[in-house]
Each structure stands twice: as structure tokens, then as C-alpha cells.
Records
---
Amino acid sequence: MTVPSFAPLVLDPAAEVERITGWMRERLRLDLRKRGLVLGLSGGIDSSLCAALAVRALGAKNVFALFMPENDSDPESLRLGRSVAETFGIDSILEDIGPSLAAMGCYERRDAFIREAVPEYGAGWASKIVFDSTITTGGYNISSLVVRSPEGEMRKVRLSASAYLGIVAATNMKQRTRKQLEYYHADRLNFAVLGTPNRLEYDQGFFVKNGDGAADIKPIAHLYKSQVYQLAAHLGVPGEILCRPPTTDTYSLPQTQEEFYFALPYDQMDVCLYGLENALPRSEIAVATGLKETEVELVWADIAAKRKVARYLHAAPLVMAAAT
């Protein structure tokens, strides 16, 4: 992890930590009326920072962590999540959600949709969904399925709209099952559920509705991803996590976040989003990111498109007004 060279994204970590933790304590006491926080620890940078902030705000005894691996999880995620809990003295529990997902048909449903594109897909195969960058496609988000056979052969195929939606729908069971367990433990402890999205994810809808998007408090949704790394380093998050590339850890093949959702690596996305939010000239953003001005325009258009999708994800249920 390096400090970003784009000056507007550089924080005073100590001051920002104090500001966030003070807000967390106040909201927990005045609004939520809970005595502690529950969160899922994935071994990633966002949940690790949230755990560190929660401990700083409330003390370790008022923070409880869940490790929730499933059949497709990278074992490294569990190891790194446990290292965070140990580093900050957080009580935790392992909840393997693989059997529950299998019982609900998560894997079977997903594989059935995959077989629409790859009929031989079955035991011993692995897969992920990827998107071609909006920069290389001229502004279009084109999804594909990548599969690996038991013999190690890799193949990339286009998906029909129905197959894509089916795979995503089945996969979303993972995030919703995890959130159900977080709320179970929150209810039994009289704690609140801590959500872990950063600004990129929150702004552009990189979460599952009523899954990892559900929470009682989201303390880092205002932070750009590069700022997450700054605060995590300041609070002593383990170095292995600071150096680990961001990953979804959702599919059975390794998958980076830019492969699946964002048009660029997080450091460039941060600068593009900041430039759009603050109406900076595209020429300035091009210099800061190393992109062409036309590419900056494509990224900004992609952000706008994702924000349209995010409106539904953020929206509360529609309620009919009483007759007058």
C-alpha cells in the first residue's frame, strides 16, 4: 500500500479516525440504542478497517466478528480474517454457510445456468463472471463466463441475458445468507450490524440488496478506497491484508473487483470518481490517472450508468399511502 499521489485523496489518518469513531459512538448511543457491533470479517481491507474502527470506538469486548466461508471461498480469506480478529482482540465465531447454500440449491441452480453456455460443466470445474472494461469496449459493459475444466483448460464464453441473471441470482444467495447470520448474532447480543462498503462500492451499487448492502451503520461509505488503505495502515491492520489485491471471493475462480464490476483498478477509479464529484477538468484527471481524456469520459459515463442501477439497490420498499 502506498499513499496516493493525488493530493485531494490524502487524509490526516489520526484526525479522520477520531472523527469516524466519535460518530460511531454517538449514532450507536442516540439512534441505534445498541451496546456493540457485529460484522463479517472476510479477510479483505474494508471489513478489516471496519473491525479496527469498531474496536477503537467501543472497545474489543463490544465487537463480535463472524467468519462465513462457503464452498467457493479462498482459504486465505478465513486465515486473514482470523488474523484481524486476533490483532484487535475481537471475539469471533466460524459459521460455514456452504451446507446451507447447498441445501437451498445455490450451487445447483448456478451450475444449471452455466451449463446453458458450457453443457459439460460439472464436478471439478470452476468459473467466474467477468466484464470487459468499458474503456476497451467503447462504453459497453459486456459480460462473459470464464470456466476452467478439471484438466486446467481455460475458456471464455458469452452468456445469454437469462443465463447471466440466473448465475448472479444464485450467487447472491451467499451474501444474503451471511447477512441473516449477522443479524442473528446481533439480535442475541443486542448489538447493531456494521456494514463495510467503501465509497466506490456504495456510490456505484457494488453490493447485493438485502445482502451485504444491509446494515445498521456504515462508517466508511464516505471513504475512497485509497483512503481506506491509509486508515487501515494507521490502525495497524496486518500487512498481508494491506498488500492483498481487492477480490470478490465469491466465485470458484479468483476474481478481481475490476474484472467483475469496476472499469479500472481502485486507485484510478478513486481519482475518476473524485474528479466527477468535484467537476474537475477531464484533462486534469487524465494526467492524474495516466488515461486519455476520451477514456476518462468513458469511465465517467460508466459511473453514471452504475449509479442508475444503484438507485434501486439503495431504495427503501415502496409503501402505498393511506386513502384520504
Note: The CA atoms of residues 114 and 163 lie 7 Å apart.
---
Amino acid sequence: MAPELFLRDYWQKRPLLIRQAFPGFESPISPEDLAGLACEEAALARVVLHDRKRDRWELRSGPFSEESFPKLPKKDWTLLVQDVDKWDMDIRALLGAFRFLPAWRVDDVMVSFAAPGGSVGAHVDQYDVFLLQAQGHRRWQIDSRPDAPRGFRPDVELKLLTRFEPDHDWVLAPGDMLYLPPGVPHHGVAEDACLTFSVGMRAPSQAELMVDLAEELAAALPEESRYADPDLSLPADPWEIDEAAFGRVRAALHGLQALDDAALRRWFGRFITQYRAAGELGRPARPPSLATLEAELAKGGELLRHPHARHAWARDGRRACLHANGLSLPMSVAAARHLASADSLSAHDLAALDADGREALESLVAAGHYHLVKPRRRR
């Protein structure tokens, strides 16, 4: 299917099962690898267990000890690890197949291992997700009806549906992929021991957008900017909030209403590139200067982008802004386009940047967005 047809007919409209979306797919990660990653301090890992007899669900959060996995039962449990694309470059490479979507919309690749019967229960996601079967087999059931029940059970920590009445039922094999738009109730159960890759999209709620924008505007206001009423007249009723008071409230909130387009664009670029979970970028103790970078790259060195660095760019008049984990850096369109997409930079890439782009790169290296890999010395 041409990507244009998928976007027109399915994206955020209806589910799509794609048999052999990745023909002959072999998982680049093993269940043992995933369990090892779940033991890392910085990894975002969970285990979900289901007691079928009592229909009870238990959620355990990582990091886990290596001894905890052999103690798990032989069935009915699932290990989920977020952001595996930040840890494993082979998993990260899979995102190249999704470049028909805006890269800044992609959140992460979550990898789950499920023992036979393992599941996280019937639930609803509020974002688009591509479910790629990597190993073993998983049965997926969905309820695609617009009026499908979406009430949650009050007796479990997870947000599981009280009622789930599927109208589609498929078993996915390695290489098969299921696309689900937001709001579609679904339930996946492992037919055998299996791995599933979930490519999830970032979809901030309107409430998140409003709160973050309001906080940014508020931070720029001086403490003395307050509600004021120097034109106060005698009130007809001291307990009434009259129309004059509401007029002053509107005036006090004028900054929200008068937000110009350029400021809104810069704010959203900063907001959407901020990493939403763990993985803070570590700043180098002694960041290299631009001259040092030029010299090392000229010798064959390379700048590698940190896996937690989120970059995107937007036009700003005839020029552009590179947005990077909450930073906004002005430069040419060509430089912004290049720095937003490149996972590695060479001497040739550095030479192609304009002055602002080179200055921005030096700032990004100092902020931990890139790591300088020096050329190997010949023996």
C-alpha cells in the first residue's frame, strides 16, 4: 500500500492488519536481552501478571533483579520495556520504516515478552500504535465499533475495560503488524512465548498543551504583574463579582489571547521535543570547542547523537529554528533540516552548516546531544 493511501484511508480512522509487513522478520533482540535490559537502573520496565482463577491483575515496576525472572510462573505474565529504541540501535533502525509519518510524532518502541497466555488485559490507548509481531504468536482482538464500551474496572491498578466485546479476531505471526488508531479497545494474548514491538506515537492531551503553554507564559511575567483595579467604584453588592471585575480578569489574561504565531511555534517546538520520561542528557565536564570538533572530525572522527536527543525543525520566516529537547536554535533551513535528521555528523556535515548552525552544534555538544568519537589510531 502506498503511504498516501494509508494516511488517507486508515490513519486515525480505522484499524488495519498488515500480513507480512516485514517479510521474513527476525527479532534483533531476544527475550533474554529484554530481561537483561529490564534490570538496568535507567530502564522503564514493568511486569504484568494475571491470576485467571480470581481474575486478578498485578503490576510490578522495575528495575528488576536477575533472580526475579526464574521465579515467575510458566504462563500468564508479560514483561514490558519502554524506549528500547534508545538502548538498541537495531531496534532504532526499525523506525526508518515509519518515516512516512512526522518523526517528531514518534514516541518510542516498546518491546514486550509474554509467556503463554500473557496479556496486559483489554484496554484503550489514546495514541496511534503499530503492533509488530517479532517472535512467536499473539492473538489480537479488537472492538472497532464507534460506540464500543470504554468504562474502566475500579478494582485493578491498570486501566482495564469493564466490558470488552470484540468484533475482530486475528493471530499474528512474525512479520505481521496491526495498526490501531487512538481509542480502539483491544486485547492481546500470547498464544506461545512471544515478543511484540509496539511503535507508539506521541499525542499530548489538550490539557497538557494548555498547562505547559500557560506555565511558560507565566514564567516570563514579573512578580508585580497582578490583578489590579485602580478604577474601582463603590460596589452595588460587596459579594458580587461584577462585570467590571471580569473585564479586568480578561485584561490580566491578555498575554494568552495575544500570543503571536512566532511565539506559539517556538513554544510548541520546545514542548514536543522534550523527552517525556527518563534519560536525561548528561553534559560533558569539559565540552570540546568548535575548533576542537573541526580538528577531530577532519582526522576522521564522528559526532554521534545521543539516543535520548529529540530533534525537530520549523520554518521561521525565511530561516528556521532547530528544536532540541526544549531548546530553540535559529539557523538556515538547510542546517536545521540536516541537524534534525542526522544521527551522526562528519567533517563534511560540519562544513555544510552555516555560521549559526555551527554555533548551535557547539551548544548541542556542550548540552550532551552529541558525543565525539575520535578516530582510531593506526598501529
Note: The longest helix spans residues 206-219.
---
Amino acid sequence: MIALRRSIKYWISMRPASHRPAPDHFLRRLLAIGFVAAALIVLWQALASLQAWLPWQDAAPRTVTPRGDLAADEKATIELFEKSRGSVVYISTAQLVQDVWTRNVFAVPRGTGSGFVWDDAGHVVTNYHVIAGASQATVKLADGRDYKAVLVGASPSHDIAVLRIAVAFRRPPPVPIGTSGDLRIGQKVFAIGNPFGLDWTLTTGIISALDRSLPAEDGGATIDHLIQTDAAINPGNSGGPLLDSAGRLIGINTAIYSPSGASAGIGFAVPVDTVMRVVPELIRTGRYVRPAVGIGADEQVNRQLAAQTGMAGVYVLEVEPGSSAAQAGLKAWRIGPDGLVPGDVIVEVEGRKVDSLSDLLARMDDFRVGDTVTLRLRRDNETREARVTLQPGI
């Protein structure tokens, strides 16, 4: 091995200088350049950090850039909120619970919602589901005052409830009343409420659709004629007002459609025309009496008969003696010795189609007790019309 090494060294020493390996000058230059670049980066970072500690850094504050005047629609929205805010209230509910060991009764917070001042007598309108199941409710005004509320009346089928508070002085202004029969899709709307407990929140949007229907949460009657809007409505907005661009009440925010439980751009409001029919009745009598014609019907039986006969409508299963339906000559379906004996089927009310019992109830809500309406009836493949005067229903 030693002899081999000596032979290699002798062979290298005997080669010409031009054939010997040259030093790697390129690699050395590359390493030098990299070292200088790294040093410059470290120095730059050090200078940037040093600037924050220099005394002259805080000597000259930034100049505010003039904004200019607000846009016309911004001014209108601000004015609408400032005028309407005082009419909106924050509602918190509680449920009385008794301790099984001590027999002491205490209040457990149950939920929150919104509402609005209806009149100068202290009536506050909200959703029925906001106060359903609660033992007590507290109404907070926009100026911070709290009042215990009493329940005046409720209509679960319309998801409307009326509370009353005793305000001795500086009464909040009632919300201006508008109409909903002339609303148009695309019209701008404003919602004020208390979503997730964030009080007096304003959201805006448009009317997305009209005359929607939603089944009640408890499986009760369908809520009809609803306004659909994309204004952000979240839990806590329920019972708050939906306003038009003039600041008038056009609906009560009542529900949302969302898989997550938060706003998905599909919200619903009870139209103010329905509110105007229901709320005065609740204030006067404590309950809403639906107009009726004096017939008996059942939704499940109605579906079975419609499937069997192939004819949609409301099948009259009973005619109350002395009722408007009896006076108009309506005939009920019955079971005879030979099977089912056909009676009348209500297919239209004042020219509007009726396919189910919920449709009929919705059509009745468009009128008042004492109004006279025209019913289109089908019996034994024949069509006729009957004029009936609406009477108090259930």
C-alpha cells in the first residue's frame, strides 16, 4: 500500500503543471457571495426593527384623508334606523322552576327575542314562539329601561303574541304601520332585532318572494302568506319588525330556513296585513277567532278522499245545524248502507283555488266575521256556487 501511494505521488509530480487539478475558485466565490447576501438580509431585518425604537418615529402622526359626504342611500338608511330604533324592544323570557328538595321556586332564563311597540297603551307585539312555554317576560326599551310584561293574547296559528308593559312617562313611539298587499319582489327591506343577544342590530336585504307557507314548529296549522327575504335574520331576530324603505312596518320576522340554524339568506316574516287583522282581536278579546262557514273537516281524511276520488279540495264531513253552510245548502259526505255517499267539495273561495284544509283556513283569514264570500262547490261531478256569510270559528 505504501509503495502504491509513493508511485501515485511520483506520477502526479512528473505530470506537467497544465495537467494538474486547478483549485475550485468558482466554489469559493459562490460561498463568498452567499455569505455576503445572508449578512445583508440580517442587517436589513435589524434596521427594520431598529426603526420602531427611534425617537423620531412617533413625531409625525398620519394625516386623516377627508372622506367626503355620505351617499344618499347611506343617509336614508341611517335616518331610518335612528327613527325606528326607539320602537324596537328586547325581550327576555324565564321559566319558573321548583326545587324538589327545598320547594323553593326560582326563575331560569329561557330565551331572548325581539318585539316592537304597537300603540301608546304599552302593547308590544312579538312572535308567539318567543314567549311560548315561558312563565315571565321582561321587555327592555332602547333607552335601557326594563319592564315586566303581561301576556294579553296570542294566536299560535299566526305566530303572533301581544304583551303589555306599564310605561308611566317617556313612552316609546309606536312603529309606523304600512301595507303588505302591494309589496313587490325586489323591494328593499330592513330588519331590526336582537340576534344572538346583540341588541338593536340592523340588517338589510330585499323581498325574495311572496305568499310563502311554512308548517308550524309544533306540527300545528300552516302559517300562510309569509314574506320571504334575504335580509340576515338569526335566532333572536324573531318578533322584530321588517320595515320598508319608508320605515313602515310590513311584517314580523318570524323564521329562517337554514341547516345550520344561522342565517342562510332565507328568512320569513308574517305580513302586516295579517298582523292588522289579528292583533286588534288579541288586544280586545285575548284570542283570535277565525272566520268560518260552519263545516267540519279533517286534513287526514281529506287527503284520503282526494286520493280515492282524484279531486282536490276540502271535503265537507259535517255541516253544523243553523250555520252559514247549512243555510247555503251545503251537504256533508257520509257512509250509507251501500258505501260512501258523496257530498260537497269546496274547490274555490272568491275565485282562489283551495286544495286542502290549510288552504281553506288561509283563505278565511283574508276576511272578517260578517263578510259574505262565494264558494265554488263540486258534488256528483257538477259544479255550483254558494254565497255564505262568515261566522265565528274556533
Note: The two ends are 117 Å apart (CA to CA).
---
Amino acid sequence: MNSLPKNNLYIKISLMLLFMVQAMSTFAQNKEKVPWQRINEQPDTWYGSEAAIRIAENMLLHQKDIGGWYKNIDMSVQLSEEEKSQLKKDKSSNMGATLDNDAGFIQVAFLSKAYRETKDPRFSQAVLKALDYMMDAQYENGGWPQYYPIRKGYYEHITFNDGAMIQVMKLLRIVADGKKPYDFVNADRKRRAQKAIEKGLEIILRTQIKVDGTLTAWCAQYDKDDLSPAKARAYELPSISGSESVGIVRYLMTIENPDPKVVKAIESAIAWFEAVKLEGIKLVQIDDETLPRGYDRVVVEDKDAGPLWARFYEIGTNRPMFVGRDSIVRYSLEEIEHERRVGYSYLGPYAAGLLESDYPDWKHRQ
């Protein structure tokens, strides 16, 4: 009977053990990996873990000297020494620091949780610096731009689009109230945060669009000087927003003991949402391999479909607007180019939850 030489057998066993160690290491790394979109949804104790501290330190590297961050960056990825060195060099470059697309809000929440578990002062100082950045960015009239320092163009508009301004106000309210995980914030910043949200509320009430003497809802962005509804990108024209207005109303509903102006703003917006809802239609996706993305979006009749709202409504007529990159207003989705039909949200059940549950719950509390 043939047998392997002892030295070959030892080599085989060693290789098997090495493979097992590598496999276990890879498994542990994968198990440790938390998707960027869920890093603020972990158990409290996780924020003191080695994995969380590494992410927190990445956030410190990405934070600009002014206190803000760039957007659309996954800061949970492993950084090379070269990348870390470059981030340190770029800290003084504030171009692009923004409140858009959750930039800053994810980091502030994460770093506050990491500080709570580790008591590392670097994390709390980064949060305070970020809060100062957000409060410094506020205009004297109470609004917030999309970018700060101010970036010329539509970026300097007072921006409700994608929830930018409302996210700031929600965060600062938690800070002003001294609630966890921001209970380490000092009294001066709490007072400043309170003043900021009071000014923000004033601009919300001032910018609610009135048509023929009746309050409706809000545009996605406003001119910072004359407070008129403003254009952003080519396909985002002055209009009444069936999407961004939902977040504004929900914010107003969280105000305790609202004064009559706030109540009127809410009631008026709800009445507008009821008046402009689109019934008997639904938005469907149709596979089509001849198209660049392999599918199209079309509106079809369906008497059983739930209500939809347009992203943009024409001021004065309440007609749903569909605008492509040519900035021409059209009144049906099929009339704009395919790239925009499938690359942007023009119709959706935006206000469904607001009307079905949020508003009735708010009325019950009054």
C-alpha cells in the first residue's frame, strides 16, 4: 500500500489549516461589515467596537476644516495609507461641503453614538464642529442653502429639496432639547440651536405658496433674497412640490403646542394634497431591451390604484408638470425623454402616509 511521505502529509495538513484560518478570517470580516446605509441602525454596544471606531476615524479624515462633509461617499470602506494622506491634505478644501443627500447627518449621528460608547473626545469635538457648521450655514432670514460655503448657482437657494433644510431643523431640535445621543452638547450650542429652528420655522411659514389668497404647499427651493419659488436643475422649475412638501408638513406636525399660524399651515397643505391627488392611474415599469436601461416607465389607467402625487405642480393651475432636460413644461410623463422618465421621480405615493395616518394622528393630539 502506497502512502505519502511524511513531509508531504505535513505540507497538506499545514495548507489545510492555513486555508481554514483564511476562510474564518474572511467570514469574520464579512460578518463585521455593516452596509453604509445601516451604520446608524446597530445595537448601542456596537459603536464601541473596533469596526465602528475604524469607521468613525474615517469620518474624521473626511471631515473638512469648516466642519462639513462631501456627499455620496461610503466612509465605511477600508482606506489605504495613501488615501488617508490625501484626505488630510484635502481638509482645507471646503468646496463641496454640503447638506445635500444626507451629508453630515449620517456622520453626526454615528460619531455621537461612537462617543457615547468610547468617550473619545475626538468624536464629540467632530460633532460640535459639524453642528457649528450647520448653524453657520443658516441665512439671516432663517433658510439654509444646499452648499456652504456658498456655491454660486441653484446651490445657494434656500433648499427644501431632498429634505436638506428639514433634516437640519430636525437634528437641531433634538440638540436643543438635550436628547440622546446629543446630550453632551453644551448649553450655549443648545440655545443657538433653539434660535436656529425658530428662525427656520419663520421662513417655512413665509414661503408657503399662496394662490388666489389660499395657502397651498411649498416649492422645493426658493431665492435666498426675495423668497420667490426658484429653479434648480433644468428639470426642476418653480412649482408646488408634491414630494418635498410632505416632509415640511410632517416637521410642522412634530411641534408641540403649535400656534395658530402653524396649525393653519398644516391644515392648508393637507387640503391642497387632497385637492391635487391623482386617482385611477398607476406608474408601471415595462421591460424593453431596445431602450438604454432595458425598461421604461409609463402611466396606465387602474381604477383600483392608490392615489399618486406629482413631484411638480404648476403654480396657479395645479396641473402636474413633467419637465425634461430641455426645461420645457409638458403635462404627461410620456412626453419627456426616456432618460428622465426612468432617471427621476416625477410621480409617487408621496403623501399617502401623511393623509392616511400622520394627519389623523396629529388631529387626535390637538
Note: The first helix runs from residue 6 to 32.
